[in-house]
Amino acid sequence: MSDAHRSHIDADVHTLVQLCGYSADHARAELTAISHREKVGLISTAAALELLAQATAFGVDADPVSARVQWQNILRGSGPLAQAA
Hints:
By secondary structure, the chain is mainly α. It is 79% helix and 0% strand. The chain has five helices and no strands. Helix 1 packs across helix 2 and helix 3 packs across helix 4. The C terminus is likely disordered.
C-alpha cells in the first residue's frame, strides 16, 4: 500500500472516530467491514463518509449512532443525504 493510500485511510479512520465514536482500531475494522457488507470499494466507502462529514459539519446530525446509520444509508443510496449526492 502506498503512503498516499495509507494517509487517506488514516484520514477516514480519524473521521470515523470523530463522527461515530469508534476507537481507531474499530474504525479501521469498520471501514473494511462496511465495504465488504455493502459490496463497495474503499473509495466509495470513503466518499460516503466524506459526504456525511460535510453534512455533519453543517449541523445535519452530530449523534454518533445516527451518523453510523446515515453512513450506511449513503452507501446504499437511500435517505436524504444519499439523494443529495
